[in-house]
Design brief:
The chain is an alpha+beta fold. The chain folds into 4 domains: 108 residues, no CATH class; 33 residues, no CATH class; 112 residues, Band 7 domain (Tetrahydropterin Synthase, Chain A, 2-Layer Sandwich); 44 residues. It is 43% helix and 21% strand. The strands form 4 sheets. Strands 9, 10, 11 and 12 form a 4-stranded antiparallel beta sheet that branches. Strands 1-5-2 form a 3-stranded antiparallel beta sheet, with helices on one face. The protein has a 3-stranded antiparallel beta sheet with strand order 4-3-8. Strand 3 and strand 4 form a beta hairpin. Helix 5 packs across helix 6. The termini are far apart.
Amino acid sequence: MITRPPDGATPELDGHVVNGWLMLFFNILWLAGAVAFIVRCLIHVAARQPPPLVLILAGPLALAAGIVALAGYFTLQPNEARVLLLFGAYKGTARRSGFHWANPFYARTRGALPSKAAPSGADNSLRNRIASRGGFQGYQALGSKLSLRAHNFNSPTLKVNDKRGNPVEIAAVVVWRVGNTAQAVFDVEDYTGYVEVQSESAIRSIASRYAYDHGEEHEITLRGGADEVALALKEELQVRLAKAGVVVEEARLTHLAYAAEIAPAMLRRQQAEAIVAARQIIVHNAVSMVHLALRELDEKAVKLDDERRAAMVSNLLVVLCGNSEATPVINTGTLYT
């Protein structure tokens, strides 16, 4: 599927290729005919009946053309494409899987990128020379074939500030694939590196839009609105990666936590809020039980004056809301002595 590029982007063209098996059959016939023609010319030369010079040269030229044509064969697996470049000019993209033949002068590579990785076992002098050249060891050639399969990018754990300025640690996984091969090859230097850099930038941008877990009323938070945050991250990434012809399939947070320097304080705050919330439920239920007890006493004609009712309410609330079991105290006198 060829996606429509935005304005100013390189459009993807349908590359013209020939069935490889059919071309291979004609290629073998061409080579066999060229060899037979050369042998016949040699026979005529041996019989001292040399053919014209044009015919003598036609055989080797036909043989050379057949050999050169052998370089035009290539295969494509499912969800794989090849960018067709002829002396720097873009001629289209082949997407159909199978065995194909195209112009043998189509480039097999599409450029090179600086490589920063030092070889394993390199000595200090080699590493120093690499560092003196800006960290580049050499150049890595990029093939003309591109994978159209889905890719996963697991971002490193980033430390950012949320909407309230609290430092948090966040990471995400991005599932993406190449939608427009022309944009991926010609509009950005390295679309894989472009995805990684823009993904980290988008994650930082999304994290700064939302509070970690305590927002205003009906406000989406990073912790409570996972689906909404994932959708916003996907939309943000799609806007950023459209220039590279990349389609974002899914984006979702994989790690979310307070930064180490404030994690203990935030944990104590969460514990305090949990305790307060639990106390509110306990007090509410205790008041309901006291009210039910007083109503049943009234229904059973047990008369209590205001002072005894207040004492009873106080004792019941202490028993119901206390953290430890109540210790009964038997009063042998009266409330008035």
